[in-house]
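ugh finaly. both done.
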Amino acid sequence: MLTNVAAAQGPEPTNSLETTEKAKAVFALETITITAERFPVNEKESPRFVTVVSSEQLKGTGANNLVDALRRVGGLAYKAYAPLGVSHGGMNSSITIRGIKDGELVLINGAPIQGVAGHAYDLNTISIDQIERIEIMKGAASTLYGADAMSGVINIITKEPREETAFKGSVEFGNESYHNHSVSAFSPRVNIGFNYQHLGAQTEISRSFSRKYRYDQHDTNKYAWNLNAELAENLYLDYLGSYYETGFEKHYDGNARPYEGTDQEHQKNFANLRYETPTFRAQAFGTFDVMWRKEYTDPDKPEDENKNYNFGLRGDYRFHLSDWQFNVGADWVYRGADYKNKYGDHHRNDVAPFLQVKKTFRGRLTATAGAREQFVVGESGTDDYQRFLPSFGLTWKSTDGLSLFANAGKAFRAPTFNNLYYESSFLVGNPKLKPEQGWTLESGVKYDSDMFRLRLAGF
């Protein structure tokens, strides 16, 4: 692909003191994680395997969207069903942690974004320009994050307003009628951004050799926009939206049957209001996405309209008693889906309190223990259930550069509505399906020096 990029940006700091402070900030982003404890903690002091990917590293991959960048980071498995990571019907691009399909929980600034129908999250709709960093925590995290964090957590941290005012724009062109254009504005109180992508029609994006057919894809147009605002001290508003349109054609070899053509549109919205201090965090969040699909070669077939929507509240409080550190909190998430032509409208409520206790012995050994009581409350006529989810971790600081860590935790995953109710030629749902659960055991080494950085774990 041949690419031409043009950018315009506001003034950058030039004196050495500001440059030094900026370098320190970048270093801090690479060593401080929020995901490991739901409050900021030095990554090396945590008993969890956490990878922090900065905005600069994401851009350095050369990817055109977030899911494409993550597949190039390493240590993750990636699957896509269409170019640019676009969903093909209900089949979405996905990132898998440690080989467990749908075991990952995906967050934006700590808020869950996955649809309850099929666990989809569509990271292809998020522009890299909107991201400050990604925190990837591997291993069971159900004690901190509940029902879907079976194999790990991907926490997307968006950019916040910065001290200087700046403007940035980029223009890219490539073969296959590829376009990728973006514009952003940054100020002390508000960030806004817009991104547009286009890809020309593609032939044979997938093929079934046994059933003798292929899929072609129409032109694709994607639009994404974002807003991040500091409303008051410690109070932030995040909004991300996206829309794309494309289509698919199913062609049978030798024209054995007439081709089948489908137009597809998809709109997603995410909003998050959060209040954050060093000892207290609270947020209210919501997501809404809808996909429309119309088979234009069969006018009598009704249009599909599939909706996923979540909203909820979350609170965390950190305090100390003597030399013990306590984190207490609670979550409530309402999860709903309405698949008009499939199984209709369903919903559930996830509610949980949790507690984490941490203590350091003799300045070297740090022990962390946590527990969550997870309640899943179904709609009328369905089963309710609860699970106790404990975890335990140890970190041994051998030297300033070398730490050893180990952790154990109970993993838990609730069935999706597709698992429960969806029916097709290759899948039949089971309304009596129970949650999956298991244990994760992990140990490893963290080593840092001026010239070398190592993170090694066995699980």
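ok and the 2nd:
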Amino acid sequence: IGPTGARALADALHGIETLDLGRPPSERSLGAPANATGDEGAHALAAALPDSPLRRLELRHTGLTGRGAKSLLA
């Protein structure tokens, strides 16, 4: 979804309890692209989390680095 999509999701978090942005486990295509949420998208999601009922956020294979993870944990 990329950073732009992550910002749009952040705006919609008020009604979401579980969000999985990782690659679906059923995906078996060789070379299937990962979801490129990245650190920029993580920062947008992190800003929306305090006012969200979200209880689980899955970000496997999204290009997230330690910098983005720190913003989610802050």
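summary for the 2nd one i guess: Strands lie at 18-20, 56-58.
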